[in-house]
Amino acid sequence: MGAGEQLGLSFDARDVPRLDRVAVAERLADEVSGRLGAPVRLVVHDNRHTMVSFRREGAGIQLRIHHLFLGAPPDVVAALADFARPGRRAGRQEASRRIDGWIRAHRDRIAPPRTGRLQARGRVHDLQAILDRLNAEHFEGAVEVRIGWGRSGALPGRTSIRAGVYLHSARAIRIHPALDREEVPEFYVASVVFHEMLHQVLPPAERGGRRTLHGREFRRRERAGPDHVRAAAWERENVHRLLAHPRRR
C-alpha cells in the first residue's frame, strides 16, 4: 500500500509499514478536521477497552482512536467527527451507533488480552483435569482452550461473584481463586468450567445491534449440563463464603 492510500479502503494497520500508517492517519485527521472546522490532533492506539475518545485542546481537539479506524469508509469518518462535535447529544448517539457497528465488524483487529502464564493446578482443584473430563464427556473433545486460576483480592461490599470468565480472543478460561478451597465441591467448580466452555462452542450472537452472551441455546445447553441444578443451589447457599474468603495467588 502506498502513502496515497485513500480512506474507505479498509485494511489492518498492523500489516502495513509505519510510514503508510502515518500517511493514512494524517489524511484521517485532515478529514475529521474539515468536517469539524477545527484543528484535530490524532492519536492512534491499540487500547482494548476505549476505542474512541476526545478532549478539547484550546481551539482544537485531540482525538484518540484505535488503529482499526485507519482506512475506515466516509460514513465512519463522519461518525468520528460527529462524536467529537460539541453540543450535539442526539448526533453523538447516532455516531456512537455507527462507530460501535464498525468495531463489531472488525473485532479481529483488537489485540487479545494478555493472559500471561495460566496455572491450572490449584491447592485443591486441578482445573485442567476437570476441563479434560468435561471436554471428553460433553463436547467430544472439540473445545480447544487454556485454563487457569485468576488473581484476586478481597471483594468488599459485593453480593455476587464472577466465578469464571472466557476470553474469546485469547481462547482462555480464568476461574476465580476463591473456588480453590476444600469447602468448595468439585461439582460446583466443574459447573463453572462447563459454563465457560460453552462460550467457545456458542459464541455471542449479534441481533438488532445488540450482543447476546447467553442466548436460548446457551441456556438450554447449560441446564442440560452436569450437576447444573445442584451447583446452582450450592452457589445460592454458599456465595457468602466465596465473597468472605477469596484466596490471593
The major beta sheet can be summarized as:
3 strands, mixed
Number of E strands: 8
Category by helix and strand content: alpha/beta
CATH domain class of the largest domain? Alpha Beta
- Return residue spans where pLDDT drops below 50 for at least 5 consecutive residues: 1-9
Order of helical and strand elements: HEEEHHHEEEHEEHH
Oligomeric state of this protein: single chain
Distance between the termini: 47 Å
Give the topology, please.
Blueprint: H1 18-36, E1 40-45, E2 52-57, E3 60-66, H2 74-84, H3 89-105, H4 127-138, E4 146-149, E5 164-167, E6 172-175, H5 186-201, E7 205-207, E8 210-212, H6 216-223, H7 228-244
Parallel strand pairs: 1-3, 4-6
Antiparallel strand pairs: 2-3, 5-6, 7-8
Molecular structure report:
Mean pLDDT is 83; it is low at 1-9. The protein has helices at residues 18-36, 74-84, 89-105, 127-138, 186-201, 216-223, 228-244, and strands at residues 40-45, 52-57, 60-66, 146-149, 164-167, 172-175, 205-207, 210-212. Strand 5 (164-167) and strand 6 (172-175) form a beta hairpin. The protein is built from seven helices and eight strands, in the order αβββαααβββαββαα. The protein has two domains: 13-109, Zincin-like, CATH 3.30.2010; 127-244, Metalloproteases ("zincins"), catalytic domain (Zincin-like, 2-Layer Sandwich). A three-stranded mixed β-sheet has the order 1-3-2, with helices on one face. The chain starts with 17 loop residues before the first helix and ends in a 5-residue tail after the last helix. It is α/β, with parallel strands linked by helices. The longest helix has 19 residues, at 18-36. Helix 2 packs across helix 3.
